[in-house]
Amino acid sequence: MTVKKYFLAIVISEPLFQRIEAVKQDLFLKHGLKGALRSPAHITLHRPFEWKEEKENILIEKLKSFKFKNEFLIELNNYSFFEPRVIYVDLKPNNELFLLHNEIKAFAKKDLRLFNEVNDVRGFHPHITVASRDLKKSNFFELQQEFISKIMSGGFICNSVSLLKLEKKWDIIHNINFNIV
């Protein structure tokens, strides 16, 4: 049995997806930061968990039964920081997004028997990472000054959740459209 890593996220829609990916690519070209390039621009809803690859089809079938009440607008709100290692695109406050996160968390616990999200004491802070793990503290404050005044705006309709799997990088393996209740 092969155990793989998976997570659940909202993958950002076009054309915002390409704009955010361009920022990540620019950080790679100018500063050698490639950590954020390992996954498509996204908002994490359930952090990575392990699942037997041979039972991946069961995971997907269970996810197909997830229901959410309706699609909703997600709006970007410039850049922000988790000092001293993360630069991210911030989001405007959004009750629907918090509701979706809570419903995904409850679904994962009850239907998928996943408990790793329950122990996360950091809480849910939705964001879209553009630089993280390989951003050194010495470089962080310089880039923070560069990004603090940059504008990143726009919005997109969220109507699905994606299941991502780690191979060499995180790849979308299934999209779960909201089965509107």
Descriptive key words:
single chain, 181 residues, alpha+beta, four-stranded antiparallel beta sheet, 4 helices, globular
Give an overview of the whole structure.
With 181 residues, this protein is of the alpha+beta class. The protein has four helices and eight strands, in the order E-H-E-H-E-E-H-E-H-E-E-E. The protein has helices at residues 16-31, 56-64, 95-111, 137-147, and strands spanning 3-11, 42-52, 72-82, 86-91, 128-131, 153-158, 160-166, 170-177. The strands form two sheets. It has a four-stranded antiparallel β-sheet, covered by helices on one side. A four-stranded antiparallel β-sheet has the order 5-4-3-6, covered by helices on one side. The protein is globular, with a radius of gyration of 17 Å. The N and C termini lie far apart (36 Å). The relative contact order is 0.27.
